[in-house]
Specification:
0% of the residues lie in helices and 32% in strands. By secondary structure, it is mainly β. The chain has one domain: Alpha-Beta Horseshoe (Leucine-rich repeat, LRR (right-handed beta-alpha superhelix)). It has a seven-stranded parallel β-sheet with strand order 1-3-5-7-9-11-13, with no helix packed on it. It starts with a strand and ends with a strand. About 5% of the residues have low confidence.
């Protein structure tokens, strides 16, 4: 199959995402957002070297984020917000050189953020609001050179943090709190 873009967004699709969705290693964009899909995100997507954009938001997906997904060499965007995904962030998150947009908001993700989070060279948008992350916010989070939108609200972070490193911007129309590193 020579399919490079799959967009089935904003339908009423049910069922699970096929395990072999990226079997041909040519698929670059997978857009399945705003449906009623269930089940886990296929582990095979974590080895889909051709993948650049993955948009799975607003479904009923569960399970964990596939290992290897955030280490894919061409991945630039991942949207998995508003699902029921659980577990920690995959350890490969620091291996994503082109990743510029990540939104895992409104899931049930857990654990603390690794200090190596500051090693994401291209990340501009990092949203993990409304999960169950805990522990201190690593100061390295503001070491991401391209970061301009950060939302950590609605988690269980604790400890002391130099608030002077952030400027809080509140978008009134959507009630989303965004922090921008200075």
């Amino acid at each position: 199959m020579n399919l490079t873009l799959l967009d089935l967004s904003s339908n009423s699709l049910t069922g699970t995402i096929p395990a072999d969705l990226c079997a041909g290693q040519k698929l670059q964009w997978v857009i399945l957002k705003d449906n009623q899909l269930t089940g886990a995100i296929p582990q095979g997507l974590g080895s889909c070297q051709s993948l650049t954009k993955l948009r799975l938001s607003n479904n009923n997906l569960n399970g964990s984020i596939p290992s290897g997904l955030l280490g894919l060499p061409n991945l630039t965007m991942v949207e998995i917000q508003q699902n029921q995904v659980t577990g920690p962030l995959p350890s490969g998150i620091i291996d994503s050189p082109l990743l510029s947009y990540l939104d895992f908001s409104s899931n049930s993700l857990t654990s603390s953020l690794p200090q190596s989070i500051g090693n994401l060279p291209s990340i501009m948008t990092f949203f993990i609001a409304n999960n169950h992350f805990d522990g201190p916010i690593p100061p390295q989070i503001c070491d991401m050179p391209a970061l301009n939108r950060l939302d950590l609200s609605g988690n269980n972070f604790s400890g002391n943090y130099d608030i002077n490193r952030f400027v809080l911007v509140v978008m009134m129309e959507t009630s989303i709190a965004l922090c921008i590193c200075m």
